[in-house]
Amino acid sequence: MLDRKIPFPAFALLFMVAGATDALIYLHSRDLLAVYMTGNSSHIGRHIGEGNWAGITPLAAVIAAFFTATALGAWIGMRARRWRPTVILLLTSLLMSASMPFAHSDDYPFITVLFIAAAMGTLNQVSGNESGVTFLTGMLVRTGRAFAEGNFKAGLDGLVRWSALVAGAALAIPLNNHLGRHALLAIAAMLALGAVFTAWNALVGRHRARHSS
């Protein structure tokens, strides 16, 4: 389950970022979920059923931001090759940083949610071997299957990811209480740190490849 181009500390940080972002969104934007496209899509269906056409537009915009960013992230990642994780994490960090100036301490405005949705869409293309890396439901299903097949290494990897996401969500609360809207910059810094880990990993891999050939 673990992409060898992404070192373990970076993967753990990635899931902590996902958990922290989830928690901040639930605190500051309950109607527009920048990280939960299933929920946004269900809300669109509900609005259609209720005839509430005005409620569809912002939800559709958030989904479009996520989808456009993840498609662009995949396109960039394919061309970055061994540097894919580093480039994607840096782009995600920039998008998360861009969301902060528009944010308020109480509620995140629409533009902030759009930037966060774009950031999370980009983040989920960090691995060339596994798309949607922070999608927890699918990951838990794969983890259960791994344990059923006796693949305990993959199963434990899944549990570590889940634990990191929960830890990130817990960390978001003191960050939010002490930093307010600047908690988004703390998340951006975590992403930048992950980029450093992956860049180092890529350099080590290139060095080993040269010496083996």
Q: How many strands? A: 0
Q: So what's the CATH class?
A: Mainly Alpha
Percent of residues in β-strands: under 5%
Rg over alpha carbons: 18 Å
Biggest sheet overview: none
Number of helices: 8
For this structure, the CATH topology is Growth Hormone, Chain: A
Question: Roughly what percent helix?
Answer: over 70%
The backbone outline, from C-alpha atoms, is globular
Query: Which structural class is indicated by helix and strand composition?
Result: mainly alpha
Poorly predicted runs are: none
Order of helices and strands: HHHHHHHH
First-to-last CA distance: 28 Å
CATH A-level architecture:
Up-down Bundle
Number of domains: 1
Mean pLDDT equals 89
